[in-house]
Amino acid sequence: MQQITGYFAIHPFEGVIEADLENGIYKDVLSERNIVVKNNKLVFNGEPVIIIN
């Protein structure tokens, strides 16, 4: 079963956020860039992120 996880900023925000994902490298389906999750955190640049795993 696939899980879809999305991260979106309601107000302008950039920084490190908690991620409900296992550590690893994921592909953002919107931008096709790699998203690195380490220690259950990821660097968020303010752009929407959708990960399907």
Name a few traits of the molecule:
53 residues, mainly beta, two-stranded antiparallel sheet, 45% strand
Describe this entry's structure for a reader.
The protein is an all-beta fold and 53 residues long. The protein has strands at residues 4-7, 15-18, 24-27, 34-37, 41-44, 49-52. The strands form three sheets. It has a two-stranded antiparallel sheet. A two-stranded antiparallel sheet has the order 2-5.
Give the arrangement of secondary structure elements:
Blueprint: E1 4-7, E2 15-18, E3 24-27, E4 34-37, E5 41-44, E6 49-52
Helices and strands: which structural class?
Answer: mainly beta
Shape: globular
Series of H and E elements: EEEEEE
Overall pLDDT? 95
As laid out across the biggest beta sheet, the strand order is 1-6
Q: What's the helix count?
A: 0
> Mind describing the biggest β-sheet?
2 strands, antiparallel
Q: Helix coverage percent of residues?
A: under 10%
Alpha carbon gap, first and last residue: 9 Å
Low-confidence segments, given as residue ranges, are: none
Q: Please give the radius of gyration in angstroms.
A: 10 Å
